[in-house]
Specification:
36% helix; 5-stranded antiparallel sheet; 628 residues; alpha+beta
Length: 628
Amino acid sequence: MTRASIFSFLATALPALPSQVTFNRDVAPIIFEYCAPCHRPGEAAPFSLLSYEDARKRASQMATVTESRYMPPWLPEPGYGNFAGERRLSARQIETIRKWAEQRAVEEDVSDRPPDPAFTEGWQFGPPDLILKMPHAYTLAAGGSDVFRNFVIPIPVTVTHYVKAIEIRPGNKRIVHHANLLIDRTGLTRHLEGKDQEPGFPGMDLKVESEIFDPDGYFLFWKPGTSSYVEPDGMAWRLDNGTDLVLNMHLQPSGKQEVIQASVGLYFSRNPPTKFPMLIQLEHDNALDIPAGKKDFVITDDFELPLDVDVLGVYPHAHYLGKELEGFATLPDGTRRWLIRIPQWKFNWQAVYRYTQPLFLPKGTILSMRYVYDNSAENVSNPNQPPQRVRAGNRSTDEMGHLWVQVLPRGPQDQRMLLQESWMRQRLKKEPGDFTAHYNLAALLKGQGKIEEAIEEFRRALQIEPADATALNSLGVALASEGKVDEAITQFRRALERRADYVNARYNLANVLASQEQFDEAVPNYREVLKANPHDEDARQRLAAVLQALGNTRASRGAMEEAVLYYSQSLELQPDADIYNNLGSAYARMGKLAEAVVQFEKALTLDPQHAAARRNLALAKGQLGRRQ
């Protein structure tokens, strides 16, 4: 194509702009749609652009940042995935702003101005069904580097709910770059809270270990200017009693001390989920060892799908050295379909990207990522000047290379186990020393009833991280289910040595001790469980049963005072006709007939048909009458 024909093509593709570009007629509609979500009072941007005067003062700056596509922040390249909520300006819109700035940014006829954009104040979907708040405010220092902080928020629910939407309200949008919400059904993050004497605990890439098969499936993400998202029908996620939410926040110092106390709104669905999405993570962090000055360091990763899926969205992630990020799928016939391509990565503008329509990928498709990093001095985002060698890590000055892909498996019922097993086994081929992959595979195998295989995978995980309390506890559970009780007890004790407040390990230890009739050791462990969870009815019933068993043992030995003590403690936990009858019998054997009569009567109040209590009551009353 000749130079003249190029200009002819552009003239055809882009209708000529008016000779005089004005704010009210030409520029305001662009600003109101693409800029106002952040550039308005109360939002994260440092200035508003809603009025003509506000925009006029920054006309030249607006022309510069839009022409370079720095603003509005939208990283994906067009043609490499169709995403909902695209915020990319067209060439004509960019040219409109440039020409307006060059023509001295005139306002012109106010009647041409469109109505001001309408934004929902307060909660976007109306009052949430449940509003949660960080238990304690956090104070961000005035200076220093970015802060990555996690805050555990307990959920005050007693019955299961299903969540169809969330809204994160950070409370101080100027210092919150973005936030993720993680679901912790184990309570394991609670012991990290406040260990450095401040609310929350540090960390960027947080992983929540689960003792059961419980893969991540949802993008629970917020950044300035984004709208809340309602999950499609059938895809609400489960919220159980005892669940914690962990708010993972990226905070940026402003030059003065700032206080933040975020809130989270939850919107419930009446219907349980019928569709089960899953997040597949492509990554190769172990390959990240980027020499100083290297401009084109590349990492890749692949995963072959074991079943048909629909891809719902993607979340690419790298740090400041990321330059070009690509995700694509190669179909069994060799056809390539793009998931996303970002030619100029900006760490500060990372986001979740959801497709306008699900992308179907058949079984045998290979998901791939290819990330390029620039560790040269020419990279203006490089945090190290002069450049330094950079490896993988959780600090922003380290690097990462992740591509999270949200997929919805096709097929009847819940297909995630097949997907998870294939994903973990493929990861272990790449990284045999991956603790998380061994642990997740073990948890999956245990859920499938493949206990011996699960035990071996738990052992492999513990060879990598011998002090991991969750893995020790999970191995103990698997061993106990196979009848290897002594070794199970050893693993539970080892888990508690690492974390004395690990309630699940304490409970499992108590149960195994009770099953071996080691009642004296089981009792204090059950008491610790109830101290941590006073409303745990199962633990309460089990402790009551163990105390009854101890009472029976002492009674059989003739130690009646001890028997009375244990029976009484059992009854404090759970009234029971049999135990009242046993307590009455112990009193009778001690010669305390009046006390015995009271207990037999209590037994009959609970169970009027209790034959033994009725017979014992008659005997006790008879003996008491003869004595009198």
